[in-house]
Structures are given as C-alpha cells and as structure tokens.
Specification:
Oligomer: single chain
Structural class: mainly alpha
Largest sheet: none
Distance between the termini: 43 Å
Bound molecules: tryptophan
C-alpha cells in the first residue's frame, strides 16, 4: 500500500496545499457573514479562541494519524488499534469520512460552478457580450449543470496530476495570488463611504454577546469546517508529509494561515456590506436578520461592484476569480480523499480513479441541481452539521483514548526530537482526550436538541 506514495517536496509545499484546502468559501464567505450576523467583534474573538484551542489540537491529531499510517482514512483508522471490534468500528468511520468528503464536494462543486459563472460573466461584460453574461448570472438548470461540470473538470484535472505536480504546484501558485488580490480589494473598499461602520462592528466587541451559547457553538462549527477537519482531508495530506517535519509546528502554520485569511476576509466583506448599504441596498431582511450568505455574495456584492462604474467590473472579476481559486484549492483536497481510497484499495491508476470517483460525485451534484430546493440544504446539513461533528468526535476519541501513547510519541519525535519536554506534550494529550470530545458532544447536543 505504501509503495510509490507521492510526497510534498517541501515544508512550504505542504503548508500551501493544506492552507489551500482550509481556505475556501468557509473563510471568505462563511466567516465574514457569520461574524456580521453574530455580533461582529464578539464572534471574531470567540472564533479565534475556538480555532487555536480546539481546532488546532484536532488538526494536529488528524495530521499525525495520517503521517503515522501513510494511508487513506479507512485503512488508517483501522491501524490505530489491534482490537478487532475497534478495527471494524474504525473502518465504518473511515467509510463515513470518505462519503462525507464526497458529499461536501457534491454541493461545493455547485457553488464553485456559480463562482466560475460569475467570473466568466464579468469577462463577457468587459467584452460586450451582455446576453451571455446574463445567462451565466441567471439561475437555471442548464447553467448549473454546465458550470458544476466545469468546476469538477478543473478539480479532476489537478488531482490527476498527483501531489507534487498537481496539488502542490497549483496551491503554491494560487494561494499567494489570492492573498494579494484580497489585500488590494480590501484597501480599495476601505476608502469607500460606509466602510467604517462595518469596520467598527468588526473590531469593537459587545461584551454582552460574548457568552451567548449560540455564538459559542457557531464559532466552533465554523472553526472545524474552516480547517477541513474530520473527513480525512487533513489525514490524507498528513500522509504526504515527510518524516523530517515537525508536525505540531506545521499544524500551527496552517491554522495561522487559515485564521489569517478569514480575518482578512472580514476586513473586506464587513465593510463591503455596509458600503453596499450606504449605496441604498437592503442588507437586512424584515426580521432584522442579515441576508443569507448566498444572497450576500451573489446579489449584494455584485450590486456593490456595479455601483462603481468601470473599475467595479474589474474588481468584480478579481473578486469572483479569487473565490473560484479558493474553492478550487479546497475541492481538490476533498476529491483527494475518495481517490486515495480507490487507488489504495484496488489496482486502478490514479487517473482512472479520479475520473471514476468524480463521475459519481458529479452525478450526485446533478441530482441536487435537479431537486435543488429539497436537496441542497439537506446535503449541506447532513454533511457539515451531523457527519462532520461525529467524525471529529471519533477522531478525538481514537487519538485520545485508543491510539497508544508510545506510538504517538514516537511519531511526534520524528521531526521534533525534543517533544517530550515541550509544552505541547504537556497540554495536547489532555486536550484531545477530554476537552475536544466534550466540546464536540456539546455542539452535537445543541444540534439535536
Ligand atoms: N475548509 C474549506 C473551506 O473553508 C472547505 C473544505 C475543504 C472542507 N475540505 C474540507 C470542509 C473537508 C470540511 C471538510 O471552505
């Protein structure tokens, strides 16, 4: 199983690829809109605490399991224990992880398709092709089918090339572009009227909101989703890291990058929402709730750009291009999970496996497109609100209780020989053992109650 496993060529290659996975719609769309509707700065503060104190330890566990087992989630989880029953249960969770990664991709590809459609529509507008642009930005089944397929084709194209030439090369190229475009857009939006209202909402916390249970729970869910935890994405990426690397430090870099981009996106989107309001757009619905994420991105933001004249068209193109890139470096990390499993449990080539798996996932996406109003929200909810916390819990329990301490220590020592005397080793085992499972159970109870 371990022969010919591809590897990231450098520490930076891994950091960029894993950050590429983590940074996606969750950061640029989910985080700012959740912040805006959950009290602004209070959410930001709690989110930061959750990301560092809960998501980071789980991320380290997932990467460690991946590098130790050098395998896909099904085989990897089964290797953590010698007990037969524990092995069977672990395999079941491995399959659930693969299924969940595939389901997340099936709806992510639809949204990714919209992003490509909006990017191309801006190019069409710049070229004077108004009719085509209109078709691309108007909801219809043919439009959705065409662009979901395009998004999937781009994803397959990168995955087929493997780890070094595909994932690492593209993420290294796309991530820095993304950060630069975002900083430029943020600076521009800051100069517009209304931006300061968004900025103060973002930065001045309302202390009365800090202990709101719903806020705590949304912030935790957001942190887990944003770091791509639980479904085997980080496990599989972990399996491509060289044994010379210090894993807790790599996990820290990825967490910092992910949080950094979410915080940066907040500096862009929150002010932009209020600039749009200054320009006369409704941003709150009648019951005082902020418009939902999809409408904010596909209605409010384009309206903001179109009120800016010529420069707005260029900015709009950059914005949707940026979001498409962020979505693509996340989608490749989702497809990698079932593809690795297919390659390692049969003898098919990587290319064949990528095409076969992607075809099935595209089939699911099509089903969702045809029954959008019933299926889209349902699939999002099953995959992210139920399956992901269950898998996160499983991961914390296996890393904290089932996997032997000695084996963990031996694995950690590779690339971090002083780990035993480090603060990390004093805190982390207790964290994954007690705090992470309890916190996840709390989220889960909240969801089902
Ligand atoms: N974290 C990515 C985002 O913020 C999405 C993502 C990629 C993901 N892989 C995942 C989410 C695995 C959950 C599980 O958009």
């Amino acid at each position: 199983m371990n022969q010919d496993r591809d590897q990231f060529s450098s520490k930076w290659g891994f950091i960029l690829a894993a950050s590429g996975s983590a940074v996606g719609l969750g950061n640029i769309w989910g985080f700012p809109t959740q912040t805006a509707s959950n009290g602004g700065a209070a959410f930001l503060l709690i989110y930061l605490l959750m990301a560092f104190f809960l998501a980071y330890p789980v991320l380290t566990a997932e990467l460690l399991i991946g590098r130790y087992t050098q395998a896909n989630p099904v085989h990897a989880f089964a290797m953590l224990s010698d007990n037969k029953t524990a092995k069977q249960i672990a395999k079941g969770f491995g399959l659930l992880a693969i299924l969940t990664a595939s389901l997340i991709l099936s709806f992510y590809a639809i949204v990714g398709g919209w992003l490509i459609a909006y990017t191309l529509a801006d190019i069409c507008m710049l070229l004077g092709l108004k009719e085509q642009a209109e078709w691309m930005t108007t909801t219809s089944i043919p439009r959705n089918l065409a662009f979901t397929s395009s998004f999937m084709l781009l994803t397959i194209g990168i995955i087929m090339q493997g780890v070094k030439k595909g994932i690492e090369k593209w993420a290294s190229l796309l991530m820095p572009c993304l950060i630069m475009i975002m900083i430029a857009l943020t600076i521009y939006v800051m100069t517009l009227e209304g931006a300061s209202v968004g900025l103060s909402l973002y930065l001045i916390p309302d202390p009365s909101k800090l202990l709101d249970v719903n806020l705590l729970i949304s912030a935790m869910g957001q942190a887990f989703f944003s770091l791509s935890l639980g479904v085997g994405t980080m496990l599989v990426y972990g399996s491509y890291i060289s044994k010379n690397e210090n894993l807790p430090s790599l996990a820290k870099s990825v967490t910092l990058m992910d949080i950094g981009i979410a915080v940066l996106a907040g500096f862009l989107i929150l002010p932009a929402i209020f600039v749009a309001q200054t320009n006369g757009l409704e941003i709150y619905s009648r019951d005082g709730q902020l418009l939902n994420g999809a409408r904010l991105i596909f209605e409010v933001i384009p309206a903001l750009f179109s009120s800016m004249g010529g420069i707005g068209k260029v900015l709009s193109f950059s914005f949707f291009f940026l979001l498409s890139l962020a979505a693509l470096t996340s989608s490749i990390s989702m497809l990698e999970v079932p593809v690795t499993y297919a390659v390692e449990s049969s003898n098919v080539s990587r290319k064949k496996a990528a095409c076969f798996v992607a075809l099935i996932i595209t089939g699911i996406s099509f089903l969702i497109v045809y029954n959008f109003s019933t299926l889209f929200g349902l699939v999002v909810s099953i995959a992210t609100e139920y399956s992901q916390p269950i898998l996160g819990l499983f991961l914390a329990i296996y890393a904290g209780w089932i996997w032997s301490r000695n084996e963990i220590l031996t694995e950690l020592k590779q690339g971090f020989d002083t780990v035993e005397s480090s603060g990390f080793w004093k805190i982390w085992p207790v964290y994954v053992r007690f705090i992470c499972p309890s916190a996840i159970i709390l989220v889960f109870l909240q969801l089902i109650l």
